[in-house]
Amino acid sequence: MDPIEQDFHESYKPAWGPGSTLLYAISGKVDSSQSKSTISDSILNHEKLAIVSEGRDIRFAKMAVSRQVSKLCPSVSSSVESTCTDPIFQLTPESIKHQRANTHFDLDQGVPMAKPMQTPFRDIASRIQPDTAYEKTVWELASILFDGQDSEAHDIPIAERTWYDHRIRKDRLILFWERLCEASAKQAVSVAPNAEERAIAHLSAHKVVEACDALVQGRDFRLAILVAQIGGDQTMRDDMDSQIGAWKDLKVLSEMTEPIRTLYSLLAGNTCVCEGEKGPAEDRAKTFVISERFDMDWKRAFGLRLFYAILPDEAIEVAVVKFANDIQADEGKRPVPWFIEEEAEVPWRDPSPHQREDVLWGLLKLFAACKSALPTPSIAETFAPQNTTGNPIDSRLSFQLYHALILRFPSASPSNPFQADTLAWAFATQLDSAGEWLWAIFAVLHLSARDQRQLAIQSLLAHHAAEITTEPANEYFQTLTEELKVPANWIFEAKALYARNVLRDHVKEVDYLVKAGDWEEAHAVLRREVGPTAVIEEDWDTLRGILDAFQPGKDGIQEWGLGGQVYEDYLSLILETARGKEKKEVLGRLLGALPSMVRGGTVAFRERVAVQEISGVVGKEVLAIKEKVCVPCPSIFPES
Q: Quick check: is 82 in a domain?
């Protein structure tokens, strides 16, 4: 065998253990300090516990939940910060609790599944704390774009509400976008070297009055009067465009500063490229992209289209299409996520950062697509964790966005459910690793395949069976069976596995298997463990209780006569409950069954000992019967 292939076969393969714990191996020669991540906010938290050997060490790690205040919770007070940075708060905030409350759980051929119900995005946004959180802006934008409008609040007649719907929605988006750009624009104003650049910075946040004030303070009264009319009708824009063309013909653009040329370009509705002039050096004027020249982020760059590039009666999707087309052409400010734009530290080296897009832009594109202005994007790809948090396994927000949006736009669902299922798996793993396994079950209920849901739920139940009390009043039991519709027999099966492998209590194992309705497996444990132990230890109360539990289902057990019936008959002899004819029938059944129980040579030692004990009692009972014809006692164990 090739040495490399041999090393692969002999290597310890990484595997996931209970509680979403990762088990992996490192060379025993590697120093412990070198084996741990040097990133302060890594994807994995490496446990101190390790299994050390001469050749290699087995290490344990769990998925990390970021504890630092990021753009998801920026600019918060210390009291709010402690809550915002709590891992459980980040994984199960009020917003997802609201979505869970608005999810219907049903059975799909015996397997539970989640069916999210449509809920206004404003209800989700109202539950995001603190108010400055980036996540809140995401849900607020979704509400503006996709929630129904309250036309009555604007005193619009019923007959005209449809006509004015896009105007109301656009006005709300403009107000929202002004607030989104305000801080960045103020920063630009504070460093602007002249009145014209201060005016441009104000205009990027739709602060027209402030822009005019800046021009007046710079004593450019004529331009201030024109800027007061920015975003006007097509006639004004055509006039401005004609004026710029005349200046080009006169070759006077070179005598104008770039900020002044930009203001006239914005008045003409040109928000991407400010065209210059080629020619001799004295007549030459530079062509530049406005957003790059004045160091705007993508939000302010899009704001120029929304505020000034489209006419007052044109809809939101027109501005979105303009910006999308400009990105493909000359616009240099791509809508990158906040963590790329701010060069924030993220726990993952993205191999394709140029492919990431801000989820706010994703929502705008989705809105334009629903108006048939752009192709319909894939919701799973657009709102992937790589775009929301910069961490491919931090998928809570992506999970929420996907299931909230797919209800509105089923046409945007992927043909292959792999991406959506990946979100559910990743979120469930996060939750399980943080100890929120009940929420992890909620997440896996969104898996598309019925067999995957069943496997995932049963695996989580098996890993956390110790925490479930099977009393009907238990909170976990009620939540699982009543809210999440998990079959009770799955819980009992998980408890039976726990009783067998951890508690080593086979009596409890049989009890749970009986409650689960798994009669054959329960009977197998009775034959193999519980019955023989009770006979050897003469624990008749335990044996009686177990046999009573089998009464409802014993008729359907295939080999009851070679197991449960034997112990039932034996118990009746010991307790002397069988008399007369009934006793003879019991002895007859035992004489017929005992040899079959040990035939074949695969019977465990404990079971053979129990059969020996039973056969001894049966022999004594047979010899004690005073009948005219003596009943011979056959040999139970065949001669070797």
A: no
**In 10 A of CB 323, how many CB atoms?**
27
pLDDT digits (tens, 9 = 90+) for 28-57: 555 544 444 433 345 677 776 677 776 678
Which structural domain range is residue 527 located in? 505-624
577-616 burial, b for 16+ CB within 10 Å, e for fewer?
Answer: ebeeeebbebbeebbebbeebbeeeebeeebeebbeebbe
Do 519 and 461 lie in a common domain? no
Rounded distance, CA 146 to CA 479, Å? 32
Chain position carrying tokens 């101190």? 48
* Alpha-carbon distance values, 237 to 105, 225, 305, 397 (Å): 56, 15, 14, 42
Question: Could you identify the residue written with the tokens 């009708």?
Answer: 233
DSSP 495-508: HHHHIIIII--HHH
User: Which range, of 39-43, 207-211, 386-390, 558-562, averages the lowest pLDDT?
Assistant: 39-43
Do 128 and 140 contact (CB within 8 A), yes or no? Answer: no
Whether the CB-CB separation of 445 and 431 falls below 8 Å is answered with no
Q: What are phi and psi of 633, to 5 degrees?
A: -100, 105
Based on the fold, state whether residues 170 and 193 are members of the same structural domain: yes
Q: What is the pLDDT of residue 601?
A: 63
CB 241, CB 265: distance < 8 Å: no
Report d(CA 254, CA 595) in Å as an integer.
Answer: 111
- Amino acid sitting at position 325: N
Asked if residues 117 and 104 have their Cβ atoms less than 8 Å apart, the reply is: yes
Closest to 133 in 3D by CA, of 125, 122, 144, 123: 125
* 44 CB neighbour count, 10 Å cutoff: 19
Helix, strand, or coil (residue 122): helix
Half-sphere exposure in the Cβ direction for 305 (13 Å, CA): 23
Q: What does the pLDDT look like over 478-495, one tens digit per residue?
A: 999 999 999 999 999 999
In this structure, the answer to whether residues 182 and 327 fall within a common structural domain is: yes
Q: Strands 288-289, 273-274: parallel, antiparallel or unpaired by DSSP?
A: antiparallel
How far the first Cα of the chain sits from its last, in Å, is: 47
Q: Whole-angstrom Cα distance, residue 247 to residue 352?
A: 44
Residue 295 falls in which region: left (phi positive, over 0), alpha (psi -120 to 50) or beta: left
- Report helix, strand or coil for 17: strand
- β-strands 103-108, 21-27 pairing: unpaired
Stated pTM of the model: 0.83
Closest alpha carbon to 431 in 114, 68, 89: 89
Query: Mapping DSSP to helix (H, G, I), strand (E, B) and coil, where does residue 199 land?
Result: helix
C-alpha 373, offset from chain centre: 30
525, 526, 532, 533: CA torsion to nearest 10: 80
Are 223 and 208 in contact, with CB atoms under 8 Å apart?
no
Looking at the fold, whether 398 and 255 belong to one and the same domain comes out as no
Residues 415-428 have pLDDT tens digits of 788 989 999 999 99
Q: Are residues 255 and 158 in the same domain?
A: yes
Answer whether residue 10 is part of any domain: yes
Instruction: Using only the alpha carbons of the chain, give its radius of gyration.
Output: 37
CB 495 within 8 A of CB 465: yes
Query: Is residue 312 domain-resident?
Result: yes
What is the C-alpha to C-alpha distance for residues 112 and 103, in angstroms, rounded to an integer? 12
Phi and psi at residue 207, to the nearest 5°: -95, 75
